[in-house]
Amino acid sequence: MAMDDQRIPGPPPSMFYMPNFVSEDEETKLLESIPANKWITLSKRRLQAIPARLTATNTLLATDSSLPPWLEDPIVQRIHATDAFDASPHGRINHCLINEYLAGQGIMPHEDGGAYHPVVATVSLGGSIVLDVTTKEENNTFLASGRQASKWRVLQEPRSLLITCGAAYSDTLHGIAEVTEDVDLGEGTVANWSLLGDQETVIAVGEKNVRTTRISLTFRDVKKVSNLGAKLFGKAKT
Ligand SMILES: O=C(O)CCC(=O)C(=O)O
Ligand SMILES: [Fe+2]
């Protein structure tokens, strides 16, 4: 699957946006499959990691190199078909972080850092949300409204895929404002406007997005993996 046509104009040229990456049926099944009892609640959102959170040394302890079937098929397989992970250390995704944001919740500007191969694939489910992307120098600039000056705004629609790699991964910060509405959304303000699946709805409601619960699945290749099975039971002698 070629992603060249999905390149977002504006940010460092290594962010790609694809609307309708999963179908509505797939979205429903995915939302139903997220384990209900594994959430870790933070003050501004809740999250869970599959198969596990990284250790203090950024190591993934895993018994299996693949993710659970409900994530492998269709999502992981479909992301692999974009070639985005071809050059990663394991040549595949081995980790999924799930974040849930209620209306008004967000995440502080940050970078994902060195624990991962520098490619992240994000699938959005539920409501739409604006991801603010800034260069590292720009990060501490605030507008008179108190909102973070954002160099690029990426509108993530439900069922969309966003791939961030290259300079966009290494030279920018990303965050989500803690607002109940994303306002002033249009051709001049949304970096991926031309790639959206449904511009009409945004225009129809007054160039804004009223936040509802949004769940993101972020897929990565964790560089350091320790095979828990081999450690516990002894490496098979071959
Ligand atoms: O929810 C998102 O789209 C962003 C999540 C994020 O930045 C992260 O988990 O590192
Ligand atoms: Fe992040």
Structural shape = globular
Seen as an oligomer or otherwise, the chain set is single chain
Give the % helix: 10-25%
> For the residues shown, what is the average pLDDT?
91
Keywords: Dioxygenase, Iron, Metal-binding, Nucleus, Oxidoreductase
Family: Belongs to the alkB family.
Pfam families: 2OG-FeII_Oxy_2 (PF13532)
Organism: Meristemomyces frigidus
List the helices and strands and how they pair.
Layout: E1 15-18, H1 24-33, E2 40-41, E3 46-50, E4 59-62, H2 69-80, E5 95-101, E6 107-110, E7 119-126, E8 129-135, E9 152-156, E10 161-165, H3 166-171, E11 172-176, E12 181-182, H4 199-204, E13 209-210, E14 214-220, E15 224-227, H5 228-233
Parallel strand pairs: 4-15
Antiparallel strand pairs: 1-10, 2-3, 3-5, 5-14, 6-11, 7-10, 7-14, 8-9, 8-11, 12-13
Structure explained in plain terms:
- The chain is an alpha+beta fold.
- It has one domain: Sandwich (Jelly Rolls).
- It has helices spanning 24-33, 69-80, 166-171, 199-204, 228-233; strands spanning 15-18, 40-41, 46-50, 59-62, 95-101, 107-110, 119-126, 129-135, 152-156, 161-165, 172-176, 181-182, 209-210, 214-220, 224-227.
- The strands form 4 sheets. A 7-stranded antiparallel beta sheet has the order 1-10-7-14-5-3-2. It has a 4-stranded antiparallel beta sheet with strand order 6-11-8-9. A two-stranded parallel sheet has the order 4-15.
- The model has no long low-confidence stretch (mean pLDDT 91).
- The structure holds 2-oxoglutaric acid and fe (ii) ion.
Features:
single chain, 238 residues, alpha+beta, Jelly Rolls, 15 strands, globular, binds 2-oxoglutaric acid, binds fe (ii) ion, dioxygenase, AlkB-like, metal ion binding, dioxygenase activity, oxidoreductase
